[in-house]
Amino acid sequence: MFRNAPRASGYFRTGYAQDLALIQTRFEGAALAALALALALFPFLVGAFYLDLACQVFLASIGALSLMLLTGYAGQISLGHAGLLAAGAFTVGILFREVGASFWITLPAAALVGAVLGVIFGLPSLRLRGLYLAVSTLALYFIVVYLGGEYESTRGFSTGIMIDAPRVGGFALRNPRAWYFVLLAAAAGTLLICANLLRSRTGRAWRAIRAHETVAEALGIGIAGYKLLAFVISSALASLAGALFAYYRGFVSVEAFSLFLSIQYVAMIIVGGMGSLLGALLGALFVTLLPYLIEALLMRLPNAQSYAGALFAIDFSAFGVVMILFLVFEPLGLVGIWRRLQTYFLLWPFKYRPVAGGRR
Amino acid sequence: MQLIVNIVVLAAIYALIACGYVLIYRVSRVLNLAHGELMMLGAYLLLTTASAFSGNAFFAIVAAIVLSLLVGVLIYVFLMRKMAGEMVLAAVLTTVALGVLLRGLMILIWSAQQQYPGQALALPNPALVLPGGGRISLFAAAIVAAAVLSYGGLFLFLQFGRWGVRMRAAGQNPLLAAQRGINLHAVYALAWALSTLTGALAGMLIALDSGLTSSMAVIGLKAFPAALVGGLDSLLGALLGALIVGAAEVLSIQYIDPLLSDVVPFLVLIAALIVRPWGLLGTREELDRV
After folding, report:
1. Number of residue pairs across A and B with CB atoms under 8 Å?
2. A269 phi, psi to nearest 5 deg
3. What is the residue-averaged pLDDT of chain B?
């Protein structure tokens, strides 16, 4: 249930414990260790630019994972994700500016604010479904951002709130490499939280709700509670991502949390592949790197400087095109492509699985 | 008096935009979140036709209207048609992506600077003094007139027109409609064309009235609450919703805080979703369908 990737060798799970294990085969363990080693060595091999990119990807991953829990697993659509990130960032900014609170206070506070907002964002979900829910989260997004902007303008931070680097155990967290490891740990922690939630009772309940609400209720799943829980956890995580973003940038401003950011997060989980944590990570990677990729490609063209002014608009258009292409031609996202590739090699020389076994 | 004029003008803007949301939703259950961008595209098309027809206002506006109809059909044929039969939400997200794409292209083609198609067409925009002391600019009055005409025309079309009846039928039950020989694709394409047309009309008139920037799409999004408050599948409801949202916005700007203007429509939207999600005049069963 937890993972349904096809297996080529004679590995068959015979018990629930095996089914739920995080690392199922020795190869997976080795691959994971290799990945961990590569990630640990990465900051010592590359320059500041790539380090910053990696940090951005980690931040985006936290946000994308939290949205994946909500949309990809619990099936509740949110177009207001940027509002939750903004809430986290503004909690940090406000607490820092008003009372000079430290890292250890602002982060839990941000998570708490996120959780409370999650209840508010989630309440409409008890009554509304699909389109109407998406619209209600959109409206809440505008309200959160308005409140943030209102705070900025009434307190005289109209250009944004500056935040000092957080102090951990006496020294300030400024070094990009230190940030890399902090954000890596945060992203890995989020991934672990999500994976653990999904292989427990909660995750199964969410998937049941997504598959069919009425049936889930008939099975004795408390729909209202689990829906709200999905919103609360997702919002708290997103808010934490926003708080980390604020510290990482050292700067909070409503301009950073446009509606486009919400759309970007939705795009991440679509491009990555709905209903897969790996998809959220791939989507975050892809969407974060896309503008840099485009810039790098454009700069290779002749008379590159003439495009520099239009780069923003080109990013926008390319982003729209990519999103449309995935929605129309590959609704299962990058993970879908990966699975199809695996299946292709598994089944070769045949094209389809025998019908008797059903899909997967 | 001035307050009432302001409310009527704003409500007319919202109503003209909101009927685009309603048309598409009513016929194909798709919420078109790119409507704001399509509206902006209409305004930019006017800018282009204005220079193509070297300032001849009549031909420029007619050409822009024809082009926007064409854009609507093209969007359906090349994009939304592919989403037929997919989950409704996928279709909605496709329109979101379309909006992002259009916005990027528009900045790329026409730049993000403020532009004035009114000057390009050499159309003056004098303030008219109404009996009673209110002032209204010429194009604001034109927006009100356009809204009245569009709603009148659409109402007659949907009620008595051959294709209007087909559109209503397709909205009520696509399967049965198709079995009676109604060409669903043509009906959907028509809905997209009409919706783009009314949106583009609103965009052109707003641009003529107060200039054109790349942030115009926000107005389109703010008109959405009007459509929902009235009921997403009811034209009359959209009119009513536009009046409510417009009045709420103008009054809160006047008496509370000008900064609120961007949030008020959404506050109204949330209130409507809590109290009556299917809208004032909408059909109740709608909620279970989505």
Report:
1. 121
2. -75, -25
3. 88
